[in-house]
Write a structure and sequence with these properties.
By secondary structure, the protein is of the alpha+beta class. It contains 3 helices and 6 strands. The protein has helices spanning 2-22, 28-42, 97-109; strands spanning 47-55, 65-70, 73-79, 114-119, 126-132, 141-151. The protein has a 6-stranded antiparallel beta sheet with strand order 3-2-1-6-5-4, covered by helices on one side. The model is unreliable at 1-25 (pLDDT under 50).
Length: 153
């Protein structure tokens, strides 16, 4: 009787693992929506962060940018290395986290061949995003990362 019980427990314990192995990966739009929902639920309205872009043929800044947001409004936008000011137009919509989510939704509507993103597990903001419109075309990809994020009380 004990041997049969042990086998039943093993079978039941392995069942969730088999289900996980058969699951499909989450779509970029689904993971983006889930991250944005986590951001909204966290209720962060004042924060500081640094955003760094990497792209060959784009007009985004090539140096890290320090962004300070208070009550969902940009307080300051400067180059992180020397503190010199930067115009918000230079960031093409990547200025607040809310606007960054809007921009990423717009980017997904263009059906890029590659869209990979990692999101902060606590607040949901995008930590790193890579977008490549045409995988076989050189220099059309764009990557950005958000670092040193700090919530301001």
């Amino acid at each position: 009787m004990h041997a049969w019980f042990g086998r039943s427990v093993l079978f039941v314990s392995a069942a969730p693992l088999m289900l996980l192995a058969c699951s499909t990966p989450e779509q970029p739009s689904e993971s983006l929506a889930a991250a944005e929902a986590r951001w909204q639920a966290a209720g962060v309205h004042s924060y500081d962060y640094i955003i760094t872009f990497s792209c060959q043929l784009c007009t985004l800044p090539s140096r890290p940018v320090s962004i300070n947001v208070r009550s969902d409004t940009i307080l300051s936008l400067t180059y992180a290395d020397d503190g010199s000011p930067l115009d918000t137009a230079a960031l093409r919509g990547y200025v607040t986290i809310d606007r960054t989510f809007q921009r990423l939704h717009q980017d997904l509507l263009t059906n890029p061949e590659v869209f990979t993103a990692t999101y902060d597990p606590t607040f949901g903001y995008p930590r790193q995003v890579h977008i490549d419109m045409h995988a076989n075309t050189a220099d059309d990809e764009m990557t950005f990362s958000i670092s040193t994020f700090a919530r301001i009380p």
